[in-house]
Amino acid sequence: MWIIYSLLVPIVASASVPGDSANPNTKLLDNIRVYIHEEASPCEDYHQYACGKYATKHSDDPFMEITQMLDHKMNQKLVQVMDELEQGSEAPGFNGSSLEAKVLRFYLNCRDAPETMRKVQRYLRLVPPDGDLSWPQFSAGRPWPKEKFNWMETLARLHRYGLSNVLISAVVTQKLANRREFIVDLGMPIFTGENDHLKGFLESFATLLSLGVQRYSILPLIRKMRKLENSIQKLTDEEDDDEELQFMTLRRLESVTGLEWRKFYEIIVDHQIPLNREVQVKNLKYFRALKRVMDAADKELVANYIMTRFIIHLTGDSREDNDPIECMKDVRRSMSLATNFIYQDRFLAPETLQRYSNEMETLFDHLRRRLLKLIDHNHLRLTAQQRRFVSNKAKGITINIGNVPKTPDLRAFADQYYKGLEMPAADKDYNREHLKLLAYKTRKWVEQLNSGAPTVDEYFYTSDSDTLMSSSPFYILRENQIIMPFGLLQEPLFVPDSHNVFKYSLMGFVLAHELTHAIDGEGIFFNTQGNVDLSVLEIVESPRFQEGMECMNRNKTDYINERLADITGLHLAYGAYFNNETGTPFQVSPREFNHMSQEKIFFLNLAQFFCGDADASTFLEHDEDKLRLVHVLSGFPPFDRAFGCRRSSSDKCRLW
């Protein structure tokens, strides 16, 4: 507990973690009923029936579905903590070097920095392409000295700030055969993400204008940059089949491609390395073709292209607004371990966190036991050795609640992690501090080339910024671990005093979905230790496995593993609760259910996860929620019985 809290007004009870004098079951049922559209048919359009009034109910709210709502509630709490810290920072005895002080300073940098310290052009002043070379538009009317520009060295310098997918994909990653060891992986870039390519014409024009490029030269520059990017993208399409993973020394790679990889590597790691250092590489044909394109391209054009992509990367990693909630998102993106520690320390007393953890572990244990029964039933007709492999994978999964390491002294761990980070209080310079945090996070990741991967108990996720500021759960393939962010431990998703039917239908489904990813079409290739095991090909290529996956993809999806996790997750959550076996979590209905069947409550509460009014384009790596709900319930007899639907069960698909 922080000493300064005794001097400050406590956060109001409504902002605390679940707990209210009202009956929790009644509250959850009321929450469900608010969204029901009685005129819709649950058999013909269940999403409209269960969620039809969601958009009206939340028309003025800054979120579009349940995880965004949980994010917003968590951000509100953290903003109030920042307000308390800001007041406390004026008091004598405030520790200006503490973890809380560092978080507060970045938050205030975001919220209060003058406009001159938030201009994107300042990023380029702070990060030139080389020590004695500025970006082309800053040459003050003189010819830009393009002979000083080296595109690979510039890319390596920008890699320090997390830019790793421009012209070259350069990623520090775990070795496939040994997750404890890291290696630099080199390959061709991808162009699929929102920030993986140039923006549209109007946005590109505005960006270049804000970067100080002369207005008259912007239009031809955009055309040339697009032409360059198209030529690079064409190379990636042509060499798309050149995916063989190879391990080779930098000496050999330089010889094969003609590119200066040693210098590139040394700038990334910030120290000298021998030419016999080994890297992991794909797409050798691409690199040879890339050299020809770069040798022929105008250096100033290449510099402008890299510069523009760098700015796209930086703006994509920050929030444009200095609104307190938006700044809290920024802090969570950049200092996730620190904000998770602060949230735990402020809102989850040790006994409360232990209680919640026990609830989650019990729930997960029932779901896992249900999965192990499915594996033992052997629908796929696996050999004894194959069943043992899959069962051991499921038994080895751990849960990380809060995305924090499992250490008895989280403060000491977090203090040590941020020990080398200096956040001056003298001024508010958002651009500088944003770059500093990006460099700090990237350096911590690159250092694993020498230190190796953390243990399972030391692990916390740091990679994707959007994931770090979200309350969505996720499965970490190489760690065989499910991350359950603290934001999930809030109403209506998590209500520990509620009836078990609510717990299994919503949190149970969420956990079961992530559990399934351990043995989906991708996760199954990795064993309990997180290392690749190609013997699993016999399972994946078996007729029954193929038939199960094809069945689930009859209505085409680009996210087949997510559909598998949805469908299997429902089977696990429903079966774990209603299986009527010894030790079942099934509970009798209390009077507040008012004769509504538990089956109906189960499916109505399940739908809460899919209720929302988000546009289909906002869903990343998943089908839209309405489509997901349709497929998860398609051909599921318990749903049809609960709502009296007469539907063919021919759509029923299963894998495990």
From TrEMBL:
<dbReference type="GO" id="GO:0016485">
    <property type="term" value="P:protein processing"/>
</dbReference>
<dbReference type="Pfam" id="PF05649">
    <property type="entry name" value="Peptidase_M13_N"/>
</dbReference>
<dbReference type="InterPro" id="IPR042089">
    <property type="entry name" value="Peptidase_M13_dom_2"/>
</dbReference>
<keyword id="KW-0482">Metalloprotease</keyword>
<dbReference type="InterPro" id="IPR008753">
    <property type="entry name" value="Peptidase_M13_N"/>
</dbReference>
<protein>
    <submittedName>
        <fullName>Uncharacterized protein</fullName>
    </submittedName>
</protein>
<feature type="domain" description="Peptidase M13 N-terminal">
    <location>
        <begin position="42"/>
        <end position="402"/>
    </location>
</feature>
<keyword id="KW-0645">Protease</keyword>
<keyword id="KW-0378">Hydrolase</keyword>
<feature type="domain" description="Peptidase M13 C-terminal">
    <location>
        <begin position="474"/>
        <end position="649"/>
    </location>
</feature>
<keyword id="KW-0479">Metal-binding</keyword>
<feature type="signal peptide">
    <location>
        <begin position="1"/>
        <end position="15"/>
    </location>
</feature>
<dbReference type="InterPro" id="IPR024079">
    <property type="entry name" value="MetalloPept_cat_dom_sf"/>
</dbReference>
<dbReference type="InterPro" id="IPR000718">
    <property type="entry name" value="Peptidase_M13"/>
</dbReference>
<dbReference type="GO" id="GO:0005886">
    <property type="term" value="C:plasma membrane"/>
</dbReference>
<dbReference type="GO" id="GO:0046872">
    <property type="term" value="F:metal ion binding"/>
</dbReference>
<comment type="similarity">
    <text>Belongs to the peptidase M13 family.</text>
</comment>
<keyword id="KW-0862">Zinc</keyword>
<dbReference type="InterPro" id="IPR018497">
    <property type="entry name" value="Peptidase_M13_C"/>
</dbReference>
<keyword id="KW-0732">Signal</keyword>
<dbReference type="Pfam" id="PF01431">
    <property type="entry name" value="Peptidase_M13"/>
</dbReference>
<dbReference type="GO" id="GO:0004222">
    <property type="term" value="F:metalloendopeptidase activity"/>
</dbReference>
